[in-house]
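Retro notes, item 3 of 5
We never archived the inputs for the adenosine-5'-triphosphate complex last cycle. Fixing that now. Sequence and ligand:
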Amino acid sequence: MSNVILKHVWKVYDGKVEAVKDANLIINDKEFAVLVGPSGCGKTTTLRMIAGLEEITKGTVEIGGKIVNDVEPKDRDIAMVFQNYALYPHMTVYQNMSFGLRLRKFPKAEIDKRVKEASRILGIENLLERKPKQLSGGQRQRVALGRAIVRDPKVFLFDEPLSNLDAKLRVQMRSELKKLHLRLNATMVYVTHDQVEAMTMADKIVVIKDGIIQQIDSPFNLYHYPKNTFVAGFIGSPSMNFLDASVVGKDDGLWIKLKNDIMLKVPKIYEEELVDYKGKDIVFGIRPEDIYDKMFAVAAKSENTVSVSVDILEPLGNQTILHAKVGEDLVVASIDPKTEAEVGQKIDLVFDMSMMRAFDVETQQAIITKEKLEHGLNESKSARVSGNNGSSKK
Ligand code: ATP
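Structure as it came back at the time:
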């Protein structure tokens, strides 16, 4: 069993910088967990405490059921892959990969077997006699991975291992790492500030802000059921739209009132959750992909359609990102690339209100429960507000 458990873990640097605050986290055996958050949020510090490279101020770290606070890094049965690879320049690939095993006095034949096997998995068998400077960035990264693999550790720790690679190679290595995880069947903890990396690779994502864990969840749940505005805004690209709004009660139910008296009808399923907010301000959230060009929407009604003026159009080929003014607010929508919208012109946008999100102004916490949002997701699927990307035009 090689799970990693953090219980009430704190890291305070120099008695004053609280880099990690009361972290509680369970990473299960064979799980791929990604710690993600903006620069300085404490993810590297957390990883380094797991590795034993940073002293734990308070709390406990367990690996494989054993508290390791006082265990030396070399005795923790972990292998860490860093952003800068940290290869020895004067050694060949073979020597770099075998170095740790030689230090541990492994028999020569066993070392050879492990290096050959790892280099086969990584497709670098033909590079074993080269020195690091004779390798490309991607090849160096593979060698760094190989050095970790030969150790056959309980837990792999990765600190932004792909950030020195160009965009294309990063995408490739992302899927290779994922395959590697399946193949090695090992527990992996991976640090990145890139939410796309987190979403594509993780079984479990840990979103951190200012040293505090905000939410631990699957990529799907983080995207659909964010617990607060930070998570909602951090996961997803382009980011979720947040608009100042209030909840208004009318004869026919609840409405969301945006600036300039723009009104959007709250779906029945969410009324119970929002009724306490009647007459109060909320933060209204909606993802760009849940706003549609009316031309391609099949469920446009006056209660979910807003006329906007187009500010910017960014055609990406498979979609067009539209920036528009909704009253005084700016809204970003990811719409069908066949749109006829033009900058400076008006266009009707349809909001898929079953996908709306609502947050408390004070606490920034989500108001609508996951259970209700699951209903909303199903409603959105069956109503198919949009025919985005190919389905029927109204
Ligand atoms: P990045 O993505 O930029 O690497 P991060 O999320 O990994 O950021 P950490 O490196 O863990 O963040 O740093 C968390 C906080 O602790 C930051 O405010 C940082 O300035 C501070 N910090 C990190 N190392 C030290 C140190 N050795 N001494 C004092 N403060 C530190």
